[in-house]
């Protein structure tokens, strides 16, 4: 089957131009990054630490509870 579109396709730039454009776009995006203050970094780290502790407690409780349930069911 022939292509439905017979328009002339745009020629891709060579590999070096594409790599250069990619690096330029990376630098442009890195300029948009906002570095957190020390206070923000501390509180976000604290929030992550508390969340991890919560998940650890949840998984430990489920492991203990399901272990007891298994022992009760299968004796």
TrEMBL record:
It is a single-pass membrane protein. The keyword Cell membrane applies. Its main location: membrane. InterPro entries: SecE_bac, Translocase_SecE/Sec61-g. Belongs to the SecE/SEC61-gamma family. Keywords: Cell membrane, Membrane, Protein transport, Translocation, Transmembrane, Transmembrane helix, Transport. The keyword Cell membrane applies. Essential subunit of the Sec protein translocation channel SecYEG. Clamps together the 2 halves of SecY. May contact the channel plug during translocation. It comes from Bifidobacterium miconis. This is Protein translocase subunit SecE.
């Amino acid at each position: 089957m022939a292509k439905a579109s017979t328009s002339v396709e745009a020629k891709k730039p060579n590999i070096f131009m594409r790599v250069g454009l990619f690096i330029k776009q990376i630098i442009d995006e890195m300029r948009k990054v906002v570095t957190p203050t020390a206070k923000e970094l501390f509180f976000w780290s604290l929030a992550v630490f508390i969340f991890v502790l919560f998940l650890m407690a949840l998984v430990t409780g489920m492991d203990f509870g399901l272990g007891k349930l298994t022992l009760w069911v299968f004796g």
